[in-house]
Design brief:
Blueprint lengths: L6 H23 L8 E2 L4 E11 L2 E3 L2 H8 L7 E4 L6 E10 L4 E9 L6 E3 L2 H6 L6 E2 L10 E4 L4 E4 L7 E4 L2 E4 L1 H7 L6 E6 L5 E10 L6 E5 H7 L6 E7 L1
């Protein structure tokens, strides 16, 4: 006959089970996956997500790296970003608007198919640019801008040629997480932010790529308005 499980042994078993659940979640997501979703009574799913506050920055294509920094030049890693393979480069450039310029703007890597400048609207107003909210630099409506490096300068034409814009708030999801949540690339979700300045942000664009870690990106204007700090968590709401 089995001996009864004592209170102490029951606690040990519960602890072992909890550790195993955490181990499996970490193994599946390399320690950076989303927390389990919670089904609410009104049919919505909720997911706790980290927020990355996106400071003004520049993305460059390989050709423009050569023009700005010299022939044969490669970007150098200054700091790894949350997403694997993405980094803040040591290199900085000057971005010139119609009225003023912003010096020492950070370049992010790796290089892309076209160059673009991402600013908060407050940054744009300072240098005399009126910018649209867009998903990427090649979207229609993105504005011309000049970038100056230590070895040369480039002028982006805007639109398909790459340009300056205010980045649309968005969430990065892996293909696995997107499937689990029942969402797809291009969907719009809600983000509930608690704290001293609670707010619900609508129109959070879903961006999906295999291997991506779950993270919401807000620019500095949005983060400051909601009292958000980099790395803070909020609640992504998926309404069914």
């Amino acid at each position: 006959m089995q001996s009864p499980i004592t209170r102490d042994s029951s606690s040990i078993i519960l602890e072992q089970m909890s550790r195993e659940v955490v181990r499996r979640l970490m193994q599946q997501t390399n320690g950076h996956g989303p927390a389990p979703t919670i089904q609410r009574g009104d049919g919505a799913l909720e997911l706790q997500v980290p927020i990355g506050v996106s400071v003004r920055h520049v993305h460059l294509c390989p050709e423009h790296v050569q023009i700005l920094f010299g022939e044969g030049y490669d970007l150098h890693i200054y700091n790894e970003l949350y997403q694997k393979g993405y980094y803040a480069a040591k290199e900085q450039v000057m971005v010139v608007g119609r009225k003023r310029c912003i010096e020492k703007m950070r370049v992010l890597g790796p290089t892309r198919a076209y160059s673009q400048v991402e600013l908060a609207q407050s940054d744009a107003l300072v240098i005399g640019l009126k910018l649209p909210v867009a998903t990427e630099g090649a979207d229609p409506g993105t504005q011309p801008v000049t970038i100056v490096g230590p070895e040369g300068a480039i002028s982006l034409s805007g639109g398909a040629g790459g340009g300056a814009f205010v980045a649309r708030r968005h969430v990065h999801l892996s293909d696995v997480t997107a499937a689990e949540l029942g969402v797809k690339h291009g969907d719009l979700l809600e983000l509930r932010i608690d704290g001293a300045r609670p707010a619900t942000l609508h129109g959070v664009l879903v961006r999906v790529k295999a291997g991506w870690r779950t993270e919401v990106h807000l620019d500095t204007d949005e983060a400051n308005a909601c009292g958000v700090r980099n790395g803070q968590t909020a609640t992504l709401v998926i309404r069914k």
